[in-house]
Amino acid sequence: TAKSRGRGGIAIYQSSAHSVARDMFRIEADLRKAIDRKELELAFQPYVNLAEGRLGGFEALARWNHPERGMISPSDFIPIAEDSGLIVPLGRWAIETACMQLADWRKRCPSAMDLNVGVNVSGLQLAQDDIVGAVEAALVASGLPGGALKVELTESAIVENPELARQIFTKLKQFDISIAMDDFGTGYSSLSYLQQLPIDVLKIDQSFIAGMMKSDDSHKIVTTIIALARNLGMTTVAEGVEEYSQAERLRALGCDSAQGFYFARPMAAKEAEAFINKGVCGPSGESGVEQSID
Ligand code: C2E
Ligand code: MG
Ligand code: MG
Ligand code: MG
Fold it and tell me: What range(s) does the EAL domain occupy (predicted)?
């Protein structure tokens, strides 16, 4: 639940038991101001088309550079944002900022013309915000076509309210936005949702990728998810690819795209721009995907 996640999240502050509530309250107050004070940033992590060895786009990942506490990871502040309702302004900021950034790259970098951006949307945003309106406003403000945007939701976010998800996804599809199911294989979604909802992309959870070269079972799960996606007309992105051997095997298995530290860590917008302009999809300082995978 959001409550238990929130509690786990603030453990990093090493609070004593009775200061936990006070600490959480302070973080919430700080988060309220963080957007205005520009303490929130988006990091961009590339995903790479495995068959062609080219950059497909970036996932936008929220970062909070707290003036006293330093960098706070999204797994620590997203649960607080959800508990407090701040996920609504935070989520709008993320969608808008990601669209503006990609539009800027598309304008200035010739090789960014076909790139996409993925934005994470939490289940609470579906319930509490007019997500369709927020997305439409961001597309209008940035001038980006809907086809450039991918919305990522976890299985659990969808399962909480499948009927609402279906209505919202249907509207997002009218803008040509693609819908990805994040961390696929770890939630409780029933396979029937894959059939009922207009989902375009399955993002294979990193736990299966981490195990696939060591565990026969993980390898079989990865193979099966790729086949399932293909049979249902969806594409696949492997998350958490850290090694060449995983990337090469995923390509051989027909996985469409991959994302992970092997290619690049999430980076500040400036670094991501350098990555676009280099046109290199391999890990920095080593041979690129074009040499090593093809
Ligand atoms: P996610 O959407 O599944 O994002 C992928 C996470 O895996 C990111 O963690 C990324 O840094 C990490 N990762 C990427 N490649 C590798 C790898 O090769 N190895 C390992 N071990 N990890 C890798 P991050 O940035 O800490 O984000 C964590 C989660 O926070 C995200 O998971 C997403 O669910 C959530 N999140 C991030 N930004 C936002 C946001 O703007 N809105 C919402 N609602 N959630 C967000
Ligand atoms: Mg994601
Ligand atoms: Mg994920
Ligand atoms: Mg995740």
Answer: 24-280
